[in-house]
């Protein structure tokens, strides 16, 4: 049985390189004309668009995995295409509202370098990554900064915004953090949502950076809609918040060390089990 993965050339989408190693699969770029495998896994919207133009579609099974909110820009077209062509659809659970068809939940597999995790004891280190499109405030960074500033007047907070750093540098900084803030979007009317096409208000997500945070034993907090992910895997034990309650939820994590440490252990156990290459390999080949 041979498996192929069709994705953008830099291979980073859905951690394609790690996934290909776990599946012993061949990687194909969007410029590939001939894909000779039994089973094909398509990563992302651009991969699906490329697949639709392939002349040879003689595969025993086809699946597509979405892990980015750009999916919702095309959701009517791709849902119709997926249904008509009997393609198995996997998606990050935060995309639940955009999936017309039934889908299988999936998270990215993450592989981190060996790094010593040391947390300071004289202050609370909090990290947040605005992302590549930081100027758009998609993750609510402006509002997060304001709340952190207010809490800093009460607690010894060392706040680190991860920008203009390499991935390796981000990992080192994050390994020192007690708390990682992924996103603050749900219920916030001040955060622009143009990239979602006005289709539905975006509920937030647990992204790749949040998954890394859990692996680095940061207590991860984010805005995200709770959806049903069983029987595939249990819903991630991240701290779910919203715009109205974020300050109080964050303050509880800062001052209650026992509560925070308990969540860190649960999150680390979950991400080690369900974002490992072995589990993701099993999860995204259930359709075969």
What would you say this structure looks like, in words?
The relative contact order is 0.14. This protein has a 6-stranded parallel beta sheet with strand order 2-1-3-4-5-6, sandwiched between helices. The termini are close together. 31% of the residues lie in helices and 16% in strands. By secondary structure, the chain is of the alpha/beta class. It has helices at residues 16-23, 44-52, 75-84, 141-151, 167-174, 208-215, 246-255, 257-274, 277-283, and strands at residues 3-6, 26-28, 39-43, 61-66, 88-91, 104-105, 124-128, 157-161, 179-181, 219-223, 239-241. The radius of gyration is 19 Å and the shape is elongated. The protein folds into 2 domains: 3-106, Rossmann fold, CATH 3.40.50; 124-274, Glycogen Phosphorylase B (Rossmann fold, 3-Layer(aba) Sandwich). The mean pLDDT is 88.
Give the second-level CATH assignment, the architecture of the largest domain.
3-Layer(aba) Sandwich
CATH superfamily of the largest domain: Glycogen Phosphorylase B
- In spatial order, strands of the major sheet run 2-1-3-4-5-6
Number of helices: 9
* Order of secondary-structure elements: EHEEHEHEEEHEHEHEEHHH
């Amino acid at each position: 049985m041979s498996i192929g993965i069709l994705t953008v050339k830099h291979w980073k989408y859905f951690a394609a390189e790690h996934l290909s190693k776990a599946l012993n699969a061949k990687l194909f770029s969007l410029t590939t004309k001939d894909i000779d495998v039994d089973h094909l896994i398509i990563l992302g919207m651009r991969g699906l668009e490329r697949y639709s133009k392939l002349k040879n579609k003689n595969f025993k099974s086809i699946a597509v995995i979405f892990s980015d909110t750009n999916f919702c820009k095309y959701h009517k077209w791709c849902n119709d295409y997926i249904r008509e062509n009997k393609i198995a659809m996997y998606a990050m659970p935060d995309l639940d509202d955009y999936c017309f068809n039934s889908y299988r939940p999936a998270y990215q597999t993450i592989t981190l370098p060996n790094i010593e995790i040391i947390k300071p004891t004289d202050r609370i280190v909090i990290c947040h990554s605005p992302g590549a499109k930081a100027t758009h405030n998609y993750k609510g960074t402006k509002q997060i900064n304001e709340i952190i500033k207010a809490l800093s007047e009460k607690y010894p907070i060392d706040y680190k915004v991860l920008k203009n750093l390499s991935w390796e540098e981000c990992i080192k900084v994050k390994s020192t953090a007690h708390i990682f803030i992924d996103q603050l979007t749900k219920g916030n009317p001040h955060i622009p949502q143009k990239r979602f096409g006005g289709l539905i208000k975006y509920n937030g997500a647990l992204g790749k950076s949040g998954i890394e945070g859990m692996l680095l034993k940061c207590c991860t907090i984010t805005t995200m809609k709770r959806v049903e992910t069983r029987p595939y895997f249990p819903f991630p034990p991240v701290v779910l918040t919203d715009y109205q309650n974020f300050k109080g939820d964050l303050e509880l994590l800062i001052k209650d060390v026992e509560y925070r440490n308990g969540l860190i252990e649960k999150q680390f156990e979950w991400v080690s089990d369900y974002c490992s290459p072995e589990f993701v390999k099993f999860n995204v080949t259930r359709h075969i």
